[in-house]
Amino acid sequence: MINAENKLWGGVQSQGTAGPNPGPGNPMGQAAQQASADAIAFQLWVSQQATSLAKLKVFHTMAKQVNDQQ
Question: CA spacing 20 to 30 A to 46: which of 8, 14, 15, 17?
C-alpha cells in the first residue's frame, strides 16, 4: 500500500507537472500525509488484534480438547 501511494504521488511529481506538493508549504498535503500515516497505523493495529484473536481461538480450542479428554 505504501508503494502504491509513493508511485501515485511520486509519479505525478517526477513528470514535472504542477501536481500537489505535500511539503511544508502545503497544509492540505501535510494533512493528507498525516491521514495516510494514521490509516496505516490503524491497519497495523487491526492486524495485530486479529492475530491475537486468532491465537486466543487456537488456545481455546486446544484447552477445550484437553478438558474434554479428562
Answer: 8
